[in-house]
Amino acid sequence: GDPNVSTAVAVWERHSHKESMHTWVGGAAVPPSDAVVWPQAVGQVQELATLCYRCHVPMVPYGTSTGLDGGINAMQGGICFDLSHMDAIAELSLEDFSVAVEPSITCKALNSHLRGTGLWFPISTVGAGAGSRGGRSGG
Q1: What are the names of the required cofactors (predicted)?
Q2: CATH number for domain 5-82, candidates 3.40.50.620, 3.30.43.10, 1.10.1740.10, 3.30.930.10
Q3: Which of 14, 80, 102, 139 is close enough to 60 for a disulfide, judged by CB 3.0 to 4.6 Å?
Q4: Residue 30: in which H helix or E strand, if any?
Q5: 64 Cβ contact list (under 8 Å, min separation 6)
Q6: Which residues, in sequence order, are bridge partners of residue 81?
Q7: Is the dihedral of CA 77, 14, 36, 5 positive or negative?
Q8: What residue ranges do the domains of the chain occupy?
Q9: Are strands 79-82 and 59-62 parallel, antiparallel or unpaired?
Q10: Are 5 and 48 in contact (CB under 8 A)?
């Protein structure tokens, strides 16, 4: 429910913006999703994914809003999962040089957290947008 779900046109437009050089069919704008949700925790993402699966509704991931990989293209409608509120560092293991982070952690925030540990997370140049947001990685 509000404020974690929106079907407002302005929100759709913002969540269908992309920087990709790829165009949609006929060069038209990227089609918007049917709704945007802002999960706050992994459990909510799991519940939303289960609901989408049961109802045959496409899931459209949304991270940093560049759309360089074409991930925000809602080709058949669907629910946009805006993961920007999930930016915590879940686990840090200095022993094995690994860190588990939520999907919207930035390299800057991660490196700030790592300051003083002797570890750092380099910004990758592999892939479009790689290194700007994290997943599970070593440092």
Answers
A1: FAD
A2: 3.30.43.10
A3: 80
A4: none
A5: 104, 129, 132, 133
A6: 37, 61
A7: negative
A8: 5-82, 87-138
A9: parallel
A10: no
Place of tokens 């140049």: 125
Q: Give percent of the chain with pLDDT exceeding 90.
A: 15
| Residues 74-124: tens digit of each pLDDT | 566 788 888 888 888 888 999 988 888 888 888 888 999 999 888 888 876
Q: How far is CA 7 from CA 13, 24, 121, 139, in A?
A: 10, 22, 37, 39
- Report H helices in the chain: 9-14, 42-54, 107-114
pTM of the model: 0.65
